[in-house]
Structure formats: structure tokens, C-alpha cells
Amino acid sequence: MNTSPVTPAAGAPAVPAAPAALAAELAGLPETDRTRILAVIAANHAPTTLAIYAYAWRQWSAWCAGRDLVPLPASAAAVCAYLTERAERGAAFATLEIACAAISHEHRRHQADNPVLHEVVRQVRRGLRRTRGMAPSRQARALSVGDIRRIVSAIERTTARGARDAALILLGFASALRRSELAALTLADLEAKPAGLLLTVGRSKTDPDRRGQVVGVAHGLHPDTDPVGAVASWLAVRGTAPGPLFTSLRGRDGSSPITGGTVARLLKTRAEAAGLPSALISGHSLRAGHVTSAAMAGVGVDRIAAQTRHRRIDVLIEHYIRPVDALRTTSSRDLGL
Question: Top-level CATH class of 20-132?
Fold first, then answer.
């Protein structure tokens, strides 16, 4: 094991440096071969995950620098001090778990003893789980069908931007795709059927091996909120050239792809324009809104799970279905207040 201090780069690179043992194994290969191998190894984690780890690592490194500590290899005591201090300052439990994951990741990459696996760190994490709780402090607002109708009604769809935004919002709500999946759709991922659209999701959180998942979107009952019709109107503007389904409308040809962040900003902007409070509206509001609206309409949890592609039904029930059921079955309605 490597026990000497290591100072990694501030952010995790796209292709990480090879640990000592792997570097020795690859030493006899040409540089191009080594680069390809390391790139494939780096693909074990999604780019977004690596970016999150890099940010969390920078925070940990800065904290260590302020205390004159070595971030790698780190001691279990230092990790405990970091976690408890951040918790005292209000960090959510999920944030602390990301910090642990980032610290573990860097220690594994450099074949250093992982302090996060130490028993005292485990005990601190269990204690924080109890005291901080698992729920995020600010959950995304789940948009209702009424909210969606209000938002798209305020959009001028005769413009390219309006046609795109209406299609993105309606398709995002109807499909229950994650914002990153929505942004990653290409024209080739759409297949028109008499009953609606089939969307092929090339890679997702629940499909890291890229087997592909198919999601159906039916025609809407009303022309102004029909997701299939909105997509057709956008394609009439966009054209049929291969490439991303939703483009940024910037640049010389306006055909560069959007990002998950674009989805969130666009939705928030359109919600504000429609007069909705946007403080808790995020890219996840479309997906959350689909689930809660379907549950309120009496759709079974099995059908909702098939649409959202949740791997764990208990997560779907705990975070989305149970709050809806609580309002539907509450005995407070019968108290005569």
C-alpha cells in the first residue's frame, strides 16, 4: 500500500492517472494504448459522477489545507472531524455521503489505505444518518397537470424558442425522463407510432451498461398540452437533420445540444413567466410531477415504475406515492373541522 503523502490535482481529470500497480502493468505499452485503456477504466464512473467527486474533493482538500493536514492519505480522525464540522454547519446527510464517496474514490485510485472504511468513520456516518436524516432539505416541487398547462399556455409557440420550450416541457412531463436523459435525446431516439412516440434512452442512471430502455409517450387529450403534437411542431422548425432533438438555438447554426442544466433553467424561467413560484422548481420537477399526478389519477405503482424505470419500488413509494396516499386517505377529512 502507498502510505506517502500524495497531492492529486484539484479536480479529477477526465482520464485519471494510473495507480502505481496499474502503471507498472501498462509500462511496456505505447502511450496511445495506455491512454485508451485508462479512458475505458475511467468509464466505470459517469462523467457527471466524476465531476461531483472532483468538486467534493476540492472542498475536502481546501479544508485539509486550512488545518495543515494531508488530504491523501488521510487519517480516519481527520475524516470524522470534517464530517462532523460540515454537519454542524448545516450540510445535508446526502452531501456528507458524497464527500465520503469522493474521498474513497481518490484513495482507491492511488492505492492508499481508505480512511472511510475505518470503524470510527462508519460509526460517525451512522450517527449522522440518525441526526441529519436522509431527506434533502429542499425537495423539488412536483408540477401538476394544471401547472404544466399554465406554463405552456404562456409560451409563444410561433417562435423557434417557444416551439422548442413547449415541446421539451410537455415531453419531459409526459415521459418522466430525467433531465439529463431528456437533454441527451437525439432525433434517432424517436420512433413515431399511431398511438404516440417511442423514446429510446441510450444511457441512464438505471442502465449504465447502455443496453437501452424504451419509454412510451401517448397522444394528449388536449391540443395545447399534447406532447406528441408539440414535438411535431418543434420538428417542423428544427428540421430532420441528424443530431440532438433539443438544440440550444445558439451559435451559427443553432444545432448544438442542450444540457441537463439548460432543462432546469428553461423550466424555471418559463414557470416564472407564467406567474408560478419557482424557488423549488428544478429539472426534476417534471419527473416528480409525472409520478405524483399519475398516482393521484389512480395509476398503479407497477405502471408508474415501468414508466420511470425505478429499480427500487420502495424508493418510488417512499418519495412519491406515500405523500399522495397520505392526502387521499387522511382521516382529518372526516373530523368536521
Answer: mainly alpha
